[in-house]
Design goal:
Blueprint lengths: L1 H18 L5 H7 L13 E3 L8 E4 L2 E8 L5 E3 L4 E12 L2 H4 L3 E10 L2 E9 L1 E8 L14 E8 L2 H4 L2 E7 L4 E3 L2 E3 L24 E5 L5 H17 L6 E5 L5 H6 L1 E6 L16 E2 L2 E2 L9 E7 L7 E7 L2 H12 L11 E4 L4 H4 L7 E3 L8 E4 L2 E11 L3 E3 L4 E8 L9 E6 L2 E7 L9 E6 L8 E11 L9 H4 L1 E4 L4 E3 L2 E3 L16 H4 L7 E5 L4 H15 L10 E4 L5 H6 L1 E6 L5 H6 L32 E8 L2 E11 L2 H10 L3 H4 L6 E5 L2 E5 L10 H5 L22 H36 L1
Parallel strand pairs: 13-14, 13-15, 15-19, 33-34, 33-35, 35-37
Antiparallel strand pairs: 1-11, 2-10, 3-9, 4-12, 5-8, 5-10, 5-11, 6-7, 6-9, 16-17, 18-19, 18-20, 21-31, 22-30, 23-29, 24-32, 25-28, 25-30, 25-31, 26-27, 26-29, 36-37, 36-38, 38-39
Helix pairs in contact: 1-17, 5-7, 5-11, 11-14
């Protein structure tokens, strides 16, 4: 009985530890959302965790890890740039002499932008080591402009002796990046740079500035510009829209600006030194016809590290041309690289971009590229597929390569990836050393995308002798410049109209046309916030567009042309009281609005409540257009400006989009409640469910089963188990006491 009691108590203790949430180490790091830095002061310590990295374990005999991050295009790193590594080194061995030594026999090589900073002999235990990064290592060697730190663990000693070495690199490691600012290049051919830098530790927003009273065409152009940057940056550029009268000094000195519209609406552009000055309601210095679009970029007079972009012309037609030309991502300038004049936009002819079916690496701008040294090495090759085109039948890569014989070929080889998707692997063989080899690798069309593509050749070299001094130069593989890509191109197909209107279908109802010309945004006439949310959605859809140019429409809610109503899928953005079309939709909406109210009535749901005016609620509703059921109407709305922001975020954030379903959703921060009104009554009143108790929204953990109350199912089962064990323990204690008393009583008798 005593043994049983001890076992039960031990089980209860173990269950308690199992139930307790992780508070440190890898589990905690993995559960912590990725941090982002709005700005980084010069000399400020930037931990790996702020770059999205968690603790990473490197396991011998060979292992490597890489950390990439971007810095603003206006930064110049200064002397004093350092990296600190917080590590825990473990070495398990049966050799007495090694077990008693503080050294492991392993080394760690530290590279920055492919420059070897230092090689250290690893000691056991927890340690922090700071490395100075020399100025000659500052220039990025990557095609995407990012900085890169590489760590290479060489524990070859583990192969020679019974030993196991590992290095835990902690997320508390980080960089100190003292810097000064420079004037960045403003060539239009470099877009989205200098406005955007991938994985920047200090991302700089782009603010699109519209006239204080824009025309519908100018709002449309602003939305197209947002979609253009969405496509150029895969939807990662932080973009918003304001009117020119809301442009503050703080915005001017902290944001890239894109002025979109006719020149007479922007008197403050007289302070900006454009190649073709925009002053006194005109564009001077060049011959511009009224219908000509103008795109130009220069450095900001308010902060020389930022860029000012002008997208416009003398007429609404010209403004639209300029925005659509920008969306092509391939701007052709004239005598100056910071200025382009657009004469015409023709989608049909623009799609006929001549790109050879076969392109050698030399034609792509590469010479022989060599990877060398022990362990993992990576070579990258960029190529583009024009927008409006997709891969046709049987694309492939002919890879020409040669390699050294001075390595263990049974353990050496390479893996090929396109856009981070593995497409093939090659085992090196002693039969083909010291000669030029050729391998044909099929390119799955699904991994090829319009725009920039990246082919990665990752090699792994194992030396014949870990003690050899020649390993850095004797282990090599060269990819030759006469390697070639064979990619037949065809016009991007037009998708079929999605007939099933449901939020779980989003965004396919709107992204099936390559140029988004099936989409019309319906916005209020004088609400920049609604324009900004529409631009946010357009940026997300733009990241999916494959057409040569992006051509969604934008119209004001009080004046919707018949051709838009009869032929376009609509995305309505704003508050109900600003949108006359909401009254026309009436009871066709899953949750209609009463006249004069921004709160949905939620009729058709099982329970309905009254909410006070001013309650923050975001609404998302989808329905077939009453006037043409083959078209889709999506309403992205809010009861307040805050509610509208929540609804917009739900349409552009991957984790939130995954939660959308049914025909009606209520959004409160990152909490999304949905109902499906197509099959009768929905659920209880969703808005009332989202409001009581000042609910603090949290992002659900992906792929974790939850109960109706939101608690993880596994934790509930554990809680039930703990309660059961506790009850059993109490019963056993009572049983022991009872039996002990009976035994004592019998002895007394």
């Amino acid at each position: 009985m005593k043994k049983l009691l001890a076992f039960v108590l031990a089980l209860a203790i173990v269950a308690t530890f199992i139930y307790s949430p992780p508070t440190s180490g890898l589990a905690q790091a993995a559960a912590t959302p990725t941090a982002t830095l709005a700005s980084v002061a010069t000399g400020e310590f930037v931990p790996f965790s702020a770059l999205g990295f968690v603790d990473e374990l490197m396991v011998g005999p060979f292992s490597d890890m890489a950390i990439q991050f971007g810095i603003p295009n206006s930064w110049v790193l200064n002397e004093g740039t350092t990296v600190k590594l917080d590590m825990e080194v473990t070495s398990v061995t049966s050799r007495a002499e090694m077990a008693s030594s503080e050294f492991t026999g392993a080394t760690l090589a530290v590279y920055y932008n492919d420059y070897l900073i230092e090689v250290i002999i690893l000691k056991k235990g927890v340690q922090s080591i700071v490395f100075d990064i020399p100025e000659r290592a500052f220039p990025s060697t990557r095609n995407d402009g990012r900085q890169e730190l590489n760590l290479l663990l060489d524990a070859g000693v583990d192969c020679l002796f019974p030993q196991a070495t590992s290095v835990l690199v902690k997320a508390s490691s980080g960089f100190v990046l003292p810097h000064t600012n420079k004037v960045p290049d403003v060539s239009l051919q470099s877009l989205p740079r200098p406005i955007y830098q991938l994985d920047s530790i200090a991302p700089e927003p782009l603010v699109i500035v519209l006239p204080s009273q824009p025309t519908a065409e100018e709002v449309e152009a602003g939305i197209v510009v947002s979609a253009a940057f969405g496509r150029m940056t895969q939807g990662l550029q932080d973009t918003s829209i304001i009117s020119v009268d809301a442009l503050t000094n703080d915005i001017q000195i902290t944001s890239h600006l894109a002025f979109v519209g006719k020149p007479d609406n922007f008197p403050n552009l007289s302070f900006v030194s454009f190649r073709a000055p925009v002053v006194s309601g005109s564009i001077s210095g060049i011959d511009v016809e009224p219908a000509d679009g103008v795109i130009q970029m220069t450095n900001s007079p308010w902060n020389s590290g930022l860029a000012i972009l002008y997208v416009g012309g003398l007429t609404d037609e010209a403004v639209a041309k300029a925005a659509q030309a920008l969306s092509s991502g391939q701007i052709r300038s004239g005598l100056s690289q910071d200025l382009a004049v657009v004469k015409s936009i023709n989608e049909a002819t623009a799609a006929e971009v001549t790109v050879p079916v076969d392109r050698t690496f030399e034609q792509l701008g590469y010479g022989p590229e060599t990877a060398n040294g022990v362990g993992f090495r990576t070579l990258e090759f960029e190529f583009t597929i024009p927008y409006g085109k997709v891969a046709g039948d049987n694309p492939y890569l002919d890879l020409a390569y040669s390699y050294s014989a001075l390595m263990d070929l049974t353990g050496s080889g390479m893996v090929l990836r396109v856009n981070d998707t593995p497409i093939g692997g090659i085992q090196l063989s002693p039969d083909t050393v010291n000669t030029v080899n050729s391998a044909r690798i099929a390119l799955p069309p699904a991994v090829l995308k319009p725009g920039l593509n990246i082919l990665t050749v990752q090699t792994e070299f194992v030396p014949l002798d870990y003690c050899s001094q020649l390993n850095d130069v004797a282990l090599w593989l060269t990819v030759h410049e006469f390697s070639s890509l064979h990619i037949p191109l065809i016009n991007a197909p037009t998708g079929d109209v999605v007939q099933t209107q449901g939020l779980d279908q989003y965004p396919s109802q709107f992204s099936y046309e390559p140029s988004l010309n099936n989409v019309a945004f319906v916005v209020p006439t004088s609400d920049p916030q609604s324009w900004s949310v529409a631009a946010q959605i357009a940026s997300y859809l733009g990241s999916l567009a494959t057409g040569t140019v992006i051509t969604p429409r934008a119209v004001f809610a009080n004046l919707i042309p018949d051709e838009v109503r009869e032929s376009k899928d609509m995305i309505i953005v704003g508050r109900a009281t600003q949108l006359p079309i909401i009254g026309l939709l009436g009871d066709a909406m899953p949750s209609p609005f009463e006249a004069g109210s921004d709160l949905a009535t939620e009729r058709g749901l099982q329970v309905s409540y009254s909410l006070p005016a001013g309650t923050n609620v975001g609404y998302i509703q989808v329905l077939p257009a009453p006037w043409n059921t083959s078209l889709t109407v999506l309403a992205v709305m809010g009861s307040t400006p805050t509610g509208l922001t929540w609804a917009g975020d739900a349409m552009t954030t991957t984790e939130l989009i995954a939660q959308l379903k049914g025909t009606f959703a209520v959004v409160n921060g990152t909490q999304i409640l949905t109902a499906d009104t197509r099959n009768g009554l929905g659920v209880d009143n969703l808005s009332a469910t989202a409001i009581p108790g000042n609910y603090t929204a949290t992002t659900p953990v992906p792929n974790s089963a939850t109960t109706a109350e939101g608690a993880p199912v596994t934790q509930n089962f554990l809680l039930i188990g703990i309660v059961g064990v506790s009850v059993l323990t109490v019963l056993l204690i009572f049983a022991i006491v009872f039996m002990s008393r009976r035994k004592n009583n019998s002895r007394s008798k």
